[in-house]
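PROTOCOL LOG
Step 1. Enter all chains and additional molecules of the complex.
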Amino acid sequence: MAFIDVKNIKKHFQLKKGVRGKGKVLKAVDDVSFKVEKDSVFAIVGESGCGKSTLARILVRLIEPTSGTVSFNGEDLFNLKRTALKKFRRSVQIIFQDPYASLNPRMRVYSTISEPMKIHRIVPSGDLKERVAELLTSVGLTPDMMDKYPHEFSGGQRQRICIARALSLSPEMIVADEPLSSLDVSIQAQIINLLQDLKQKHHLSFIFISHDLNVVHYFSDMVAVMYLGRIMELADTDELFERPLHPYTELLLKSAPKIGVKNRSKHVSNRMNATEIPSPVDIPDGCLFYTRCPKRFDACNRIIPQLKKFEGHSVRCLLYS
Amino acid sequence: MTLLDVRELSVGFSSLYSSIKVISDLSIHVDHGEVFGLVGESGCGKSLTAYSIMGLLPENAYAEGAVFFKDKNLLEIDREELRKLRGKDISMVFQEPMTSLNPVLKVGYQIAEVFMAHYGTSKKEALSRAVELMKAVRIPSSELRVNEYPHQMSGGMRQRIMIAMAIACRPSLLIADEPTTALDVTIQAEILQLIRNLKDEDNMSVLFITHDLGIVSEITDRVGVMYAGRIVESATVSNILNSPRHPYTMGLLDSLPTVKGKPLKPIPGNVPRPEDLPEGCRFSDRCRFAMSDCHDVEPELAEAAPGHLARCIRAGESLWHS
Ligand SMILES: Nc1ncnc2c1ncn2[C@@H]1O[C@H](COP(=O)(O)OP(=O)(O)OP(=O)(O)O)[C@@H](O)[C@H]1O
Ligand SMILES: Nc1ncnc2c1ncn2[C@@H]1O[C@H](COP(=O)(O)OP(=O)(O)OP(=O)(O)O)[C@@H](O)[C@H]1O
Ligand SMILES: [Mg+2]
Ligand SMILES: [Mg+2]
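Step 2. Run joint prediction.
Step 3. Record the structure below.
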């Protein structure tokens, strides 16, 4: 039994009726399935707007999917009874993409981090201060900062407050949505070392959403590549980085910025080969990646490819069927 | 020719009980058509430097020194004049989109407002220009999504709405504070290309704040490295990345992930708090090259090689390995 089992999740948003009549449906997440094993890091990468954060919110039960199921330790996440739900709320934490919006501006850092520990009564109240100090130190902040309010911090400091809060309940899993995006590379390295340590010693698992492909390569065990709400390829991390199969994965990996490379932008803009930008409101017929694919052929804009096993990968592309 | 000249800028916070300086005597300049990169430890003062230029420091902050834009000292001109410059001649992409987007206004209207405010453009015309800009920043179904509210957009789409607002008036100076953190690498590349085109077409200057050294390498001409409120090194981008002279810069380059399975090597220790900076060099307590002199006097920012400034008494030695 997998630790997390995601089956056929869809999330469709009904857009308001425009001036010209009918309201459209936006397919943010469309039929996504995957499993996450214990003690592992499952990374999700993909184009901005492809549905990663929406999926993250579903996985921690902040929003309900349009259809599909998620099971957590074998239990249906959307049918958990009171005590089981309370346990879930404690064992699964989320780090939001936008730290500023996820911190209460009127709450000092001490309360922000200690509140969840109080609710779940996991630390005797006499020890709370010490525990908060310890958590702040572990993310490279200082204990005196617990008396401050969110607006008194820098962007990267706020992001680390959110990481400290997620760690406070010693969860079994963290859904981390771009958790390191505002951190300099030294602090980033410090935090990755910390997370890796927690993974080994406390069997912490992660769903790790990131645009930083170097970090994904270094930190994750499995990667899912999403495009317009769907998984296009899913494979073991090393395998995916060494031998990307889907043309989108290939394009993505080739497009990462690198020290010493000056003209990436120009090349990528040319490679994207897109006059029209594909939209989750107007899903193209056939393959979702058709409009931009350098390897497309005739059948690609007619036949919808399914996610199929191919040499250890799962890949949604007619080249591999 | 210099467009922006920041001279000995110091920024601090004062309260009833204390006064804490978080930026000390920072001097940088950005030339016409140049991209100047600002990098440095989280919390070292990059965003506050940007706010000082924009005249958007928090109420309880003070700024000393001078910020010359063309021939005006932005720290001294009156609010009305600054308000006219802001969003038109100088604009900024904020690090956290939700701090600058209005949650109850449609995104298209927020972009359109920039035109209406600075040029008195009609609402209809401004809205159609907003759609054009949304297309330029690669937002799909722009005609439809111009009517959405910020919460209906993804993190990276919000970031791009803010970029659209910032470039709307084709400013002469763009301050971009971590503008692409929520973008995947392909859209990121397209946005950088858009910025580069504006630079080539309009001779726009950019102050580009980022933690991503790959992006630094790709888009900047010169770079300033900050540590604990000070510039510790500044040089051309290739000198900074290939032959750094300050041990902090070296430490950053050494922290990048390399081989999987090998623990990463962050710079040991933590950034000092502005309240208790170490004696001598501010980096001395974390520096693997520190000598006893380093703990006594703080070094000046001095020329270590032609055009290459570093605040380190050992900057002349060859400490960097590669
Ligand atoms: N409440 C909502 N109402 C309408 N549309 C929404 C809503 N929430 C998200 N969307 C849309 O769903 C799509 C997926 O958004 P999501 O935030 O999941 O993307 P993402 O992959 O996290 O992108 P990014 O990398 O930019 O953060 C986007 O087109 C977004 O505009
Ligand atoms: N309103 C405020 N009141 C008190 N201190 C503040 C305030 N805003 C920022 N600071 C402090 O000033 C310092 C510099 O903050 P700034 O936001 O400029 O950092 P930064 O270099 O942009 O960091 P990051 O890379 O994390 O965004 C930080 O240590 C921060 O805690
Ligand atoms: Mg997101
Ligand atoms: Mg900042």
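Step 4. Note key features.
Chain B touches chain A through 67 residues (CB under 8 Å).
Residues 185-202 of chain B form the longest helix (18 residues).
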